[in-house]
Amino acid sequence: MPLIKNGALEPHNWVFAARGDPLPSHGDVVVDLMAFIETGEVAFSGAGRIGVALPNDADLGLIAARLGRIGLVTIDFPGFADGRGFSLARELRHSYRYKGELWARGYLIPDQYVFARACGFDGVLVDEAVFARQGEDDWREAAASMNLRYQLSHGDYEGAPQSILALRKAARQASASANRRGEVK
């Protein structure tokens, strides 16, 4: 699956291990949630960073205590119209304060890219069939298409559109501060 970050293709070295497959002896590896819960970090001692692939209906409480040791979380998007992954990403960033890499994985289209960034995703692993129809140029255009939004968020993530409301509030506060200092006539 191609990885889109900042509106462009970006290579990555993460290996996605299927359930039951032997884990690589070195390098960064992503396992599914149940494999991570069942084996814990001990099974990954020879590997580089640990990543966890979550379904879009995962209970984040299952990994909450170990989030600081997880280098990458991927959240599955099984279909274009299933937006539960956006909510899960926002919860992971806001409620659980996850600071590592966060990637959407699956059936996202370029029109959803800006919203994914606003929810806290760093990148999107795009399904091969989707990428064949909507390639890198489409993702780049989507990334540049919106730089402002009305929604306030609890965290403005790098690459996400800025909140118009937050910008207006900051401008009012700057103006009020200047008035108090007598800088405005």
From TrEMBL:
This is Oxidoreductase probably involved in sulfite reduction. InterPro entries: UCP030820. The lineage of its organism: unclassified sequences, metagenomes, ecological metagenomes. Pfam families: DUF934.
